[in-house]
Design brief:
heterodimer, A: 119 residues, mainly beta, seven-stranded mixed sheet, four-stranded antiparallel sheet, 51% strand, B: 110 residues, six-stranded mixed sheet, three-stranded antiparallel sheet, 9 strands
C-alpha cells in the first residue's frame, strides 16, 4: 500500500525558513517523480514543485522559484521541500504527491502539513 | 485566480446525475490530458480520473470524464451521499511549464 506522510509544518515569521519532509513507502521510490502541491485556506490546489526519480531535474512554479528548493533522499525514501524567504501568501497545507510514470498525473497524495506564515 | 475555470458549487439529490465542467485554453486542456481529483472534507486529494477518461482501480464506474477542445467534464451518475466532496480538475500548461488546477467545485448532495 502506497503511503505518504508529510511533516515539518508549523508557524513561522515572514522572511523565515522551514523544511518539509515526506516519508514514502509501498513503492519503489527511485522510479517515480515526486511533487509538492499546496492549498491555501479555503482555496484551490496549487502545484509547487516536481523532482524526477533520479533527482537530477527539478521544476518550480513561478510563485516559489528562487525561494523554495525540492530535493530527495532516495536511500531514505524521503522527499523534502526547503522553503526560504517565506511570505504570508505561502500559508497553506502542503501535500506530497507521487507521480505516475511518464505523466504529470499525481496518483497518490499524503494528508498534508500546515504551514502558517505570520508575525 | 486559477487558470482552469470550474463552477464553485454544484448540487444534486441521491440517484441523480451531476456534471462538473472545467474550462481552459489551447495551452493547457487544448493540448494536454485532463485529470480529476476528489477531496473529501479534511483529507488529501484522491485521483479520480486521469488521461481525460480513465478510472484508476477502485474508482466506481459511476464516475466518468470527457474532453472536447479546451473544456473537460466530470460526470457522476447515481449520486450518493458519500460523493459530497470538492472536485478539482488539472492539466499541464505548455506556456507556464507546470501543472495547473481549477479552483475546485464543492459538490453538495441534498
Amino acid at each position: 500500500e502506497v503511503q505518504l506522510l508529510e511533516s515539518g509544518g508549523g508557524l513561522v515569521q515572514p522572511g523565515g525558513s522551514l523544511r518539509l519532509s515526506c516519508a514514502a513507502s509501498g513503492f519503489t521510490f527511485t522510479n517515480y517523480a515526486m511533487s509538492w502541491v499546496r492549498q491555501a485556506p479555503g482555496k484551490g490546489l496549487e502545484w509547487v514543485s516536481t523532482i524526477t526519480g533520479s533527482g537530477d531535474t527539478t521544476y518550480y512554479a513561478d510563485s516559489v522559484k528562487g525561494r523554495f528548493t525540492i530535493f530527495r533522499g532516495n536511500s531514505m525514501n524521503a522527499l523534502y521541500l526547503q522553503m526560504n524567504s517565506l511570505r504570508a501568501e505561502d500559508t497553506a497545507v502542503y501535500y506530497c504527491a507521487k507521480g505516475m510514470v511518464g505523466s504529470t498525473t499525481f496518483d497518490y497524495w499524503g494528508q498534508g502539513t500546515l504551514v502558517t506564515v505570520s508575525s | 485566480q486559477s487558470v482552469l475555470t470550474q463552477p464553485p458549487s454544484a448540487s444534486g439529490t441521491p440517484g441523480q446525475r451531476v456534471t462538473i465542467t472545467c474550462s481552459g485554453t489551447i495551452s493547457n486542456i487544448g493540448s494536454n490530458t485532463v485529470n480529476w481529483y476528489q477531496q473529501l472534507p479534511g483529507t488529501g486529494p484522491k485521483l479520480l480520473i486521469y488521461s481525460n477518461n480513465q478510472r484508476p482501480s477502485g474508482v466506481p464506474d459511476r464516475f466518468s470524464g470527457s474532453k472536447s477542445g479546451t473544456s473537460a467534464s466530470l460526470a457522476i451518475s447515481g449520486l450518493q451521499s458519500e460523493d459530497e466532496a470538492d472536485y478539482h480538475c488539472a492539466a499541464w500548461d505548455d506556456s507556464l511549464n507546470g501543472v495547473i488546477f481549477g479552483g475546485g467545485t464543492k459538490l453538495t448532495v441534498l
